[in-house]
Write a structure and sequence with these properties.
Elements lengths: L1 H8 L3 H7 E6 L6 E7 L6 E7 L5 H6 L5 H29 L15 H10 L5 H13 L1 H4 L4 H9 L3 H13 L1
Antiparallel strand pairs: 1-2, 2-3
Helix pairs in contact: 6-9, 8-9
């Protein structure tokens, strides 16, 4: 029963000595610290917010478990982990919605072909797209190592995506 009382009164040095897990800043001003501890049964976890203020009883108790450098490092690691998880979630959503494609094992998802066809047939003279497509062609080993200098010249001079593709195909077919 005494331990439950500690939970309601807040964390203290004795409780932290047994139940402390980790702590990290939760605000940009670095004035609030979230402290994770096990509950008395040690089977579940609870969090408590501590003010980062010298003289505050809970901060003084927390300093017996973690110093300010460790607290900053813990905060950095937590933010880094949160960002990694956020990025994974964004990638899963983007793949699910067909915004990006996974090219593992050189196996293309069938959703890829309608997208690439639309990209090639719409806005065919977009200068930025034409330039990016030319670069991609010249990064292709078959085209870059080709001895067809006239074809490469024609590829450089192409004005539309379709002209780039036709010329690239003619270079590849030799």
């Amino acid at each position: 029963m005494a331990t439950e009382k500690v939970l309601y009164e807040g964390i203290n040095k004795e409780y932290l000595a047994v139940h402390f897990i980790t702590a990290y800043f939760i605000d940009n001003d670095r004035t609030q610290i979230e402290v994770l501890c096990t509950k008395p049964d040690k089977k579940s976890v609870f969090s408590s917010i501590v003010n980062y203020k010298d003289g505050d009883d809970q901060w003084e108790a927390l300093k017996t478990c973690i110093n300010i450098d460790q607290l900053h490092e813990s905060t950095y690691q937590k933010k880094k982990d949160e960002r990694r998880e956020f990025e994974k979630t964004v990638m899963r959503i983007a793949e699910k919605d067909g915004l990006i494609f996974e090219f593992s094992n050189k196996k293309l998802d069938t959703k890829f072909y309608p997208k690439i066809l639309s990209a090639m047939l719409e806005d065919v003279d977009n200068v930025d797209h034409v330039f990016a497509l030319k670069l991609a062609c010249f990064e292709n080993k078959t085209i870059s190592e080709s001895s067809d200098n006239e074809g490469k010249k024609k590829l450089r001079q192409a004005k539309t995506k379709l002209d780039v593709l036709k010329t690239a195909i003619s270079i590849i077919e030799g």
